[in-house]
Amino acid sequence: MSPPPSPPRRPQRRAATSRPASYDESLDDAALQAYLGDATSRRVRRLRRLSAEERQRETETEALIALSLGFPIDELHPEERPLLPSHIAEAPNDYIVVRNHILASWRADPGAPLPRARVLETVAASYDHLVAAAHGYLVREGHINFGVSAAFPAAPPPDAALQGPVAPGAAVVVVGAGLAGLAAARQLLRFGLRVLVLEGRGRPGGRVYTSRLGEDKAAVELGGSVITGIHANPLGVLARQLGIPLHKVRDRCPLYYPDGRTVDTKLDRSVDLVFNTLLDHATRLREFLKEAAERISLGEGIEKLRRLYHVARSDDERMILDWHFANLEFSNAGCLSELSLAYWDQDDPYEMGGDHCFLAGGNSRLIDALCDGVPVLYEKTVKRIEHGADGVSVTVEGGQVFKADMVLCTVPLGVLKSGSIVFDPELPEQKLGAVQRLGFGLLNKVAMVFPHVFWDEDIDTFGCLNKDSSKRGEYFLFYSYHTVSGGAVLIALVAGEAALEFEKVDPVVALHRVLAILRGIFGPKGVTVPDPIQSVCTRWGSDPFCWGSYSHIRVGSSGTDYDILAESVNDRLFFAGEATNRAYPATMHGALLSGLREASKIQRAAESILNSDQKKYSLPKSLRPPNSALEDLFSEPDLAFGRFSFVFSSVTPDDPEALGLAQISLDNSSLLQPKNHEPKEDQKDQDPAAEKIIFKTFHLYANVSRELADQLHNSRDDDKGRLGLLCKDLSVRLMGYDFACDVFSDMILSILRARKARKLLQGPKDVKISLL
């Protein structure tokens, strides 16, 4: 503890006669230390159990985990440095070790929050300031303590339903209920902001869409389907929190000629080597061409190399190579003739490691979990977004207007390209340029549910070659979901130029073509291909809520355009989505991570607005805690034992994440005087009130969580031991009544509103939620 600053110049809260017994805070540190004694923190003693060699191995393992999460092993992340105190950023070695330790600790058990207090138990006391910095950064930026389990509810502040713009939490409109929008909204609610999501469709998920087909309602992925790389993937964290099993997409993918013959394994591997060698040579070509490579497409470069080296000259070799090209176009949702030779693979260094996986029961399970507790209005198509110094105004089709402090736009790049949303004022020229330069390609599907599985049950994918190079992406790859969907589900993919043409094809014709391919493959093997029970053809390119599938770097664009698209406008208008994530574009996890990123940016912007716009956000005198508020709160504590009482600022005070205040009742005889102390007669004569003060009870206060309160409650120590745990082991600062009233004024108001909310919840449940 350290002495408080000089008292603020504000009117006295209560008459002096009604003030509870206080004390001189400047003398408290020494007195409290004398009371607690010089016992070493139990935390430090536990740390001694690891040998230096064991600790070094643990540090190296944690560094590798941090690396898999996108953090450099031995330096700060570029986005991390400006958010840290300068003295830490300038000498970050110890901080990096602590940061990596926190990341690894939470990833070991992501189903529960990792509070700072728990980290402090595993780190030497001398690093407490580093724990505070690292833990605060990682929580704020969404690297830990995020998710969808019961331990991470989308919990808005208790006063959101009761107060309008006077609430400390700013109001945010999120446009779009896809992965990015839902992740951001959920995180913002946990930060204490007020959030409303507007979704144009009649369902959540956006381009992640699990349809239920057939009599058994099998889960069929019409949009984003594969978790690409399970190592460190946040979608894997969500699945783990929900206890949803993942199915590894098995590596074996046989290829078939149009006449049903199986491609020889040796030939398949040979052409696969040719394909990868061409890509390697393309990399060398762009290094040689330097800036000139920015004006050349990947398709043009590869075709020149193919001719130069005279590879894939036979019809069979050319068909197999075309299949690999189609697979590359599928990965990028764009034709090779559009992809930039210079930058098409700029995100490769960040690729998630590990297996590619299907989620049992469909990705809608993640969407549903993200939606839980998040206020979403459906069929609200946004047409106009006005943004300025006084806030934002979002107009939907039909003229309804939503006003807030900030707006997060998560619509797909295709919607931004279409101009269907009017921004007022217009977006900066640099951002408009990025929107136009980036590519937004197309992938379509024919999804079918059959009466039974007639294909090889030991594979998850198989491919089909095409004699026509211009149609190489037409039904070139089939995904089998029978292991995870609850039915015999087969999906044919349509990529590249074929995906564009597919938009014009009648669904019945498309289905007949797919069935003809399947019967051509399995018929010669004596297998009867039945008609599907139900089928669906996607039309993502014609969908006005996306106008395509996912982004890629087109000729003339670069990874910088992703960063430009992610930039906010005057801390009022923010952007998220896969096309704003330079490291993970065109992926589901990239969308989710962008939402967490923007939630952090919005939180910082809200704090800035709160500090700079005192007229709008400061608490007027009428909203300051009443004179006796702090004292009255503890007359009915949420938890009490021994000398400890607690009150919490949550509608559900038993929530482990609930924040609140602790009151520790002490008396001067036990705290401020040494044991066996007896005042001398001359001291009594000099200060007649001395003996009276010695026996007077007073209170100390601290900011705590419910989890910490429960930890103290469950401790086997006596009250003195608990106080030692609080002050020494957990480094919690205690303060007196006056200082607590000043520092915790917002918390006191929040607790008062939480109690009011509890009473309302016990009565009629017709409270209206107001965004502003």
Automatic annotation (TrEMBL):
Domain of life per record: Eukaryota
Coiled-coil portions: none
Domain SWIRM: residue ranges: 56-155
Region (Disordered) location: 1-27
PROSITE patterns tied to this protein: SWIRM
InterPro entries with a match to the protein in the record: Amino_oxidase, FAD/NAD-bd_sf, Flavin_monoamine_oxidase, Homeodomain-like_sf, SWIRM, WH-like_DNA-bd_sf
Database matches in Pfam families: Amino_oxidase (PF01593), SWIRM (PF04433)
Gene Ontology BP terms: chromatin organization
Protein name: SWIRM domain-containing protein
Organism the protein comes from: Digitaria exilis
